[in-house]
Amino acid sequence: MILQAVVTKYIPTNAYFYIDDTTKHGFLIDPGAQADKLKQIAEEKGFVIEKILLTHGHFDHIGAVSELQKAWNAEVCMHENGKDYAENPAWNLSIQTGQGIVLENVTYLPDNAMITLDANPEHKLQLIAVPGHTSDGCTYYSEKDGVAFVGDSVFYESYGRTDMPGGDEETLLKNIAQRIMCLPESTILLPGHDDRTSVEHERKMPWYAGRI
Questions:
Q1: Which portions of this protein are annotated as coiled-coil regions (predicted)?
Q2: How far, in Å, are 4, 65, 72, 164, 187 from residue 101 at the CA level?
Q3: b/e string for 17-35 if b means 16 or more Cβ within 10 A?
Q4: pTM, to two decimals
Q5: Is the CATH number 3.30.70.240 carried by domain 2-209?
C-alpha cells in the first residue's frame, strides 16, 4: 500500500507511507512537516512505521523527522553522503527559515542498499544514489510494486533544481539517465512535490530526450 500525504509548513511536500498490506508495518518517506498529521494517519490506519527514509536532506523533506523518530522509535535512513545535510542547517537550508534543523542518530546507507522490514523482509526498497539536486540525493525503488520514490530528482515533465549546496545540473541529468530512466518503462515515479509520473512518460519529454 502506498499512501501519499501532502504536508506543508513552507513548501507543500509529498510524504509517502509505503506499507506492507499483510503486517501493516512499513516505511515513511520524506516527512517534511506536520508530524501530528502524519502520526494521526498512522494511528487511524494502524500503521507501524519501522523506518523513516529520506530521499535527500533539504528542510522541506526532513522537518518532522526528529519528532516522529522519537514518537515511533523509528530508524532514520538516508544516503551516506547525507551527513552534511543532516547536521548542517546551512546545507539543509533550514537556516533560511529560522529553524536550524539538525538530525541525530541517522543510519547512513551506501548505494544499492536493500532496506527491509523486520516484520516482513519481502517488503523492501532499494536505495539508488541519484546525486545532482543534492550530493546525497537518492531514489527508493520497489521492483515488486514497480514504483520509485524519486524525491526532487524528477518531477512531472521536469527535473530538480541544482543551484543549492551540493547541486550540479550535469551530474543530476547524467544520474537521472543512468539510475532512473533505465528502470522499466512502466515504473511509476513518485516525486517530492506535485504529481506522479512514469519512466515511459518522462523519456518522451523535451527536457530529457533533448538533453541526454
A1: none
A2: 24, 10, 19, 17, 33
A3: bbbbeeeebbbbbbbbbbb
A4: 0.97
A5: no
